[in-house]
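Researcher: Re-running this chain for the archive, since the previous output was lost when a drive failed. Same request as before.
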Amino acid sequence: MNRDKITVYIPTHNRVDLLKRACESVINQSYTNLELIVVDDGSSDDTWSYLKNLKKSDERVLIFRNEISKGACVSRNIAIDHATGKYITGLDDDDYFALSRLDNFYSSRDNLNQYSFLSSSVIPICDKNILRNELYNSKRELLLSELSNGNNVGNQVFTLTKRLKTIKAFDANLNCWQDYDLWIRLCCKYGNGLNLSNADYYLDVDPKRERITNSPRKINGMNFFIDKHYNLLSQSFKSRYKAYIYVYGGIRKQGKCDLLFLFFSVAYGVKKYANLAYKH
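Model: Regenerated structure tokens:
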């Protein structure tokens, strides 16, 4: 039986060792009819050399490079523009797939007749240790009404490639919450999403490597996002982030932004607020 091609896209920037882990988790999938598209966003390490060798060793790999960094969203959109798979999903270069992830999605693909996208449960890891996280680990419908109060989807989905292309993929004008914005637009056009109970995405939450990027540019991005979706977002959501921005202003002056990251991480779940960061 012929199985449809699935595209996996990875944007990357100066994290070649982690990128190797991510790429290997894709090319070693039990589901083999795939294409892996990696966009090097202006890396200055050995990323491009590694990718050229990877492409030579596996014809399913496509690679692109921005000579100057243009950001994760632009890089993702380059990959999506070149995608030829019927289905598509993403991967961050510091995370990796369980080897059954694409098979799990493909076996559930008929749900896309009813839902705009599928997501999955995650396995948070730190220093190779698995952390407990029950936030995403259940099969449930992901309602647009719930998205009005926060991103309960995560940072990756599985959907039809033509859907991402139709809604013009990621909004490169956003400095943060680009994935959240995309999930909202998918739900608005194609209906609610569905989270599967499979835990097959390893989410690296190592605090030594990734922090919320607390900068005026990110705060402007939050304000832009809220303005863009103002009529959809709940009053609770808008009030919560007005408070965040207010508190951030005082904490930043004291040089204690890590404390703010810790507070919001504990209060709202593992890596929930990593969406505030510009994640390559």
